[in-house]
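Hey team,

Filing this mostly as a record. A colleague (T.K.) asked me to run one chain through the structure pipeline before their review meeting, and I want the input and output archived in the tracker in case anyone asks later how it was produced. No errors, nothing strange. Just documentation.

Input sequence:
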Amino acid sequence: MQTGPVDNEIINRVLQGEQALYAQLVKRYTPFVFTIVLRYTANREDAEEIAQDIFVKAYRSLADFRGESKFSTWLYTIVTTTCITFLRKKKVPVHSLDTEQIFDLADNQNSTFKANQVEQKSKVQVLNEALRLLSIDDARILALFYQAEQSLEEIGRILGVEPNTAKVKLHRARQRLKEKMETHFAEVVEELRG
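Output structure:
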């Protein structure tokens, strides 16, 4: 739920000299950007650095935003190109955590959390780990649809494919995610079903 001025209004006001309003866009889209960046790098410090770089690039390019699509769609393009450039420069190795490490991490959470909050967080962590096991293309389309809440038409525009092709890619990515969850995180899948 978006409160306050809509993105295009904020952008127009920033371009007219009210630069401080850009902070509203940063606040609004930080979770979106950070979630996608974490798909490319599991290192939180790198992710924070990349996210900051993305918002600087977006600010510098704000005059190029034409409003033909959602701001999030335009921003997503900057996110992916920045992440890919970072990975090429750094040549980051991809690692996956095994199930035991994930549950150890969940068990070591601050004890002031309620039990269900820790359980919910561990399920989110497991889902994020399963997403990291997918190809970048599969993780990207799932993030666009579920986390960025982009329509199939917008996803098609971002990926340069027809909406029906985006729908097929999304369906296949869901299937592969389901397979990864059942293969690597069977206990969590059983808990979710039960």
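Quick notes for T.K.: The chain is about 75% helix and 0% strand. The longest helix spans residues 163-184.
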